[in-house]
Amino acid sequence: MNIVLFHSTYGLGPAVRRAADRLRSAGHQVWTPDLFEGRTFETVEEGTAGKEAIGKDELLKLAVLAAAPYSERGLVYAGFSFGAAIAQTLALGDEKARGLLLLHGTSDVAPNASADGLPVQLHVAEPDPFEPDDWLSAWYLQMGRTGADVEVYRYAGAGHLYTDPGLPDYDEEAAEATWRVALGFLAELDGNDRGA
Predict the structure, then answer these.
(1) Residues 146, 116: Cα–Cα separation, whole Å
(2) Are 56 and 24 in contact (CB under 8 A)?
(3) CA separation, residue 189 to residues 88, 110, 180 (Å)
(4) Tens digit of pLDDT for each residue in 25-77?
(5) Cβ partners under 8 Å of residue 11, min gap 6
(6) Peptide bond preceding 127: is omega within 30 degrees of 0, i.e. cis?
(7) Which candidate, 40, 117, 164, 167, has a CA 20 to 30 Å from the CA of 16?
(8) If we measure between CA atoms, which residue out of 50, 51, 148 comes closest to residue 95?
(9) Residue 168: CB partners within 8 Å, gap ≥ 6?
(10) Helix extents (H) in the chain
(11) Measured distance between the N- and C-terminal CA atoms of the chain, rounded to whole angstroms
(12) Strand partners, 31
């Protein structure tokens, strides 16, 4: 599969590079756009301030430009937290999208969004202060209305960015379970593409 993987508010750090290597080892082509142009952050607060300094519209524009050279091939959009929100926005706007892999985050669903049959997989902590239950319930219903085929996996007791070994949120068991399921999801998409 061709995958574009967007980083979290912390920036394009070691955890994202390791995740990309893991996906490449499974046979996928992976691109990791750097929306913060080389800057990484130590805390959520610093990352949020850096993100706000760039601005939501500019970040979205940078993401679209980063994905555009590969979108003709049919992309799986993926991302971590803030990057998952970016990935969702791009996937719902790309009729050639092959799939959407959301790690630790979601975004608003535009009322007119259409994603007929788009395979979507979300992995999120339970509870997650950034993805509360009422939000996720509404998100799930809205995604269903777009026609997307959504699977949600919750990980009890894990921190928000539990797949990042460099953060206090890290939960090895939940992270390994996430990657096992996510790699299966991607392998199934790849198999479906080859069989088409």
Answers:
(1) 6
(2) no
(3) 17, 25, 15
(4) 999 999 999 999 999 999 999 999 999 999 999 999 999 999 999 888 899 99
(5) 34, 36, 39, 40, 41, 47, 50
(6) yes
(7) 117
(8) 148
(9) 159
(10) 14-25, 44-54, 56-71, 82-92, 133-146, 172-195
(11) 14
(12) 4
180 CB-side CA count, 13 A: 7
Alpha helices by DSSP H, listed for 37-171, are 44-54, 56-71, 82-92, 133-146
Residue 159, both tokens: 């921190």
pTM over cut 0.90: yes
Query: Domain 2-195, what architecture?
Result: 3-Layer(aba) Sandwich (3.40)
Contact present, 20 and 32 (Cβ < 8 Å): yes
* Token digits of residue 91: 């996937």
CA angle 79, 83, 84 (to 5 degrees): 55
Could you report the per-residue pLDDT of 127-137, keeping only the tens digit for each? 999 999 999 99
Q: How far, in Å, CA of 193 to CA of 3, rounded?
A: 14
DSSP 3-state of 47: helix
Q: Is 196 exposed, middle or buried (0-12, 13-18, 19+ CB in 10 A)?
A: exposed
3-state secondary structure of 168: coil
The domain ranges of the chain are 2-195
